[in-house]
């Protein structure tokens, strides 16, 4: 029986594509270790970016499939770990192509701006009411408050009733009123005729 080589296993791992980042796990620094036993059992440790990665089963299955094609491999064992902060920073650097990490002004020392998001996966549950009341309470407490009420996922598919129709989309934001000193921004939508 032919003994699998480290190079052959690494070549197989280069065909495992991270489903979210769309790059080989070898290029992303996700392969922590490869151990090849004399009996052809290959043990691979793959580092995920987060412990609860929803695509860990896909990465595991793809790793087993690709390494299993290497001549001499009798079994593939995949263990999963999680990247540490230093490894995540290196991954971000690789993904940016060496460009500097962007600066988020809200996270800088001394910045008083705070962003609060009121979200839900369902409509009609009172997000706008909670947001308006939160902005009003903050303004009443003498905090400068600004509310933006938007739907970030506009539906751009034609309706079932009229497949030729083009749906409205979010075009911009407009300051429309003040509530107790809080600036309230509501989403402005227009139809194709209004563009």
Unreliable stretches (pLDDT < 50, length at least 5) are 152-179, 188-195
The count of β-strands is 6
Q: Give the CA-based shape.
A: elongated
The largest β sheet comes out as:
3 strands, mixed
Number of helices: 4
Alpha carbon gap, first and last residue: 70 Å
Task: Tell me the radius of gyration.
Answer: 25 Å
Give the helix proportion (percent range). Answer: 10-25%
Strand content: 15-25%
How do the SSEs run, as a string of H and E? HEEHEHHEEE
Strand order of the largest sheet: 1-2-3
Mean pLDDT: 79
Determine the structural class based on helices, strands and strand pairing.
alpha/beta
Structure write-up:
- With 195 residues, the protein is of the alpha/beta class.
- The chain has four helices and six strands.
- The strands form two sheets. A three-stranded mixed sheet has the order 1-2-3, with helices on one face.
- The radius of gyration is 25 Å and the shape is elongated.
Question: What's this, in brief?
Answer:
The chain is 24% helix and 24% strand. The chain has 195 residues and is an alpha/beta fold.
């Amino acid at each position: 029986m032919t003994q699998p080589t480290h190079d052959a296993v690494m070549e197989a791992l280069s065909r495992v594509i991270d489903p979210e980042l769309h790059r080989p796990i070898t290029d992303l620094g996700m392969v922590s270790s490869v151990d090849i036993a004399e009996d052809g059992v290959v043990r691979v440790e793959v580092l995920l970016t987060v412990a609860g990665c929803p695509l860990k089963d896909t990465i595991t299955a793809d790793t087993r499939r690709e390494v299993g094609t290497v001549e001499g491999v009798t079994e593939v064992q995949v263990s999963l770990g999680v990247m540490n902060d230093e490894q995540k920073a290196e991954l971000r650097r690789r993904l940016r192509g060496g460009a500097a990490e962007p600066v988020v002004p809200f996270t800088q020392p001394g910045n008083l701006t705070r962003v609060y998001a009121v979200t839900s996966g369902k409509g009609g549950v009172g997000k706008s009411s909670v947001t308006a009341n939160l902005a009003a309470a903050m303004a009443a407490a003498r905090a400068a408050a600004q509310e933006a009420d938007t739907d970030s996922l506009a539906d751009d598919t034609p309706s079932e009733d009229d497949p030729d129709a083009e749906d409205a989309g979010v075009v911009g934001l407009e300051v429309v009123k003040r509530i107790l000193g809080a600036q309230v921004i509501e989403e402005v939508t227009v139809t194709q005729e209004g563009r």
